[in-house]
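Issue 218. Parser rejects a valid record. Input:
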Amino acid sequence: MAETKVTKKSGDDSPEGDSDSVESDEPSFGQIGHGIIKTAPIAINRDEYLQAYRDLSFDRYQLQLKNNLLHRRLGEYYKKRKLDHVLKPIEGAQELEEKFQQKLLTYEELKEKEEREMRDIRRKLEAVQFTYEDKLEHAEKNFNNLQQLEKSTGTGLIYSKKGKPIADKTVERFLTLQRRKSEQASALCLRYIRCRNAVAELEVIVHKLECLGPGLYVAQYEQLHIDNQNYSTKIEEREDELIKNRSKCTEHNQILAHIREKMHHTDEVIDFAECDLGDAEIEFLRAREDLGQVKSRRDKLRWSLQGERLKAGLLTRKDLLRDYQDATDEVVSLREKKVELEEQVRDITKEVRNARKRMVHHSNIQNAKMEDD
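Output the parser choked on:
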């Protein structure tokens, strides 16, 4: 690139105006050999070009080392992931190169189309800017005329309550306040429109980013990726469970063999138990017959007891029996009291008799004394 630029400068025999136009179209900031006077003869600084070549070759060597290192790491990564097919040479490389060339051509066409669209957009933007400035000037002119009309109608007015005329300063203050408020309202309206357009653009961009294709979204892909990871972890867990279950199956087979041996022994025990069961059934039938006889005797006793209850009549009632028991207890207690009272009467009669005897004896003694006197 540097050599081509030098040849162009050396072979340039055009006038100064042409050279100025070329240099204005192609800026040379940071170019090697920049700063040479236009009218001076062409001078080539060889050391500067050699130093630039050395620097670029060193940078190329460093980038090549970095590229080799990254290729080696990619190869190790693919080998660890068991993706050796990625390292193999691609089949049909010529066809892929042709497809790539076709895509480059389509890219150039798209780029040219984009440039044409940008030129159209700039032209439309200039037209819109022109109409905007025209309308803005017309609106400002109408607003100024409106304020002039308001100022002319406001001057000379009188307050209805006070009866004083309105000062010119207050009218101008109201007009300036009106202008300021209108500017604030227009600025807020413009800000709102910009925010609304920005939000709409962001929503479109977000929708495009989320949508991978017709009916395919990033959230669904992420959900499928998460499900895939969950299923892979579940598969690993199930494999561990299968290993454990295999070991358990071997243990259970051994247990089943042991259980079969026990079953043969239990079959023999069951045969003996069946013989004992036959004997027990015979005894059960005998016990059932004896039970029938006992039940019949029980029924006979119940019937006889029912008959005795019917014969007894009121004696079967508990309240009457309770009263009878109380009466008998009271009779017994009264008899005991009677015996005690009879003994007391006997004692009292004895005392009375003794007292009579003493009285008679005493009376006899007194009579005898009287006779002696």
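Fixed in the parser; the record now loads. The mean pLDDT is 81.
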